Amino acid sequence: ESSFVDTSGDQGNTEAQGVIQSLKALFEGKTTGASIQYTTTQRGRVMLVYEGYRYVVNRQSLKNVFWRCSRYVKHSCRATLVTSKVQEVTLRIAGTPHTHAPEVSSMDLTTDLLDEFPELQ
Question: Which segment of the chain is annotated as a signal peptide (predicted)?
Fold first, then answer.
């Protein structure tokens, strides 16, 4: 089941909070078989973590959110994934395989964003 988590970053960024609220509203009450977690980057952007890889929002359409690997520049990683905004949250791996090893273990993701942002509840 999806959960929102925070690992670090500037929590005062109201723009990031707005994005988090929007994504939370999109995925609230929806389920997925995949273990997806959401966090924020150091700059306050929303980040999706799946199977140890981190993704940032690349673009959105009416029905989907398109994510790209957070190591797009550093490792020239072109891996992408797509999450659906409609009905069940579905996840589809797209693009090429990652050019690097997974970076995040489940131990790295401990703080619930809802605890950090009571206004999201």
Answer: none
Encoding tokens for residue 61?
Answer: 């359409």
Could you state, in order of their start, the residue ranges of all structural domains in the chain?
Answer: 3-120
* Stated pTM of the model: 0.58
> How far is it, in rounded angstroms, from Cα 98 to Cα 120?
32
What angle is formed at CA 83 by the lines to CA 40 and CA 30, rounded to 5 degrees?
90
Nearest to 97 by CA among 77, 83, 72: 77
Q: How far is Cα 37 from Cα 47, in angstroms, rounded to an integer?
A: 8
Q: What CATH number should be reported for the domain whose range is 3-120?
A: 2.20.25.240
DSSP state of 120: G
Of the candidates 42, 37, 40, 95, the residue with the CA atom closest to the CA atom of residue 69 = 95
Contact between residue 37 and residue 109 where contact means Cβ atoms under 8 Å apart:
yes
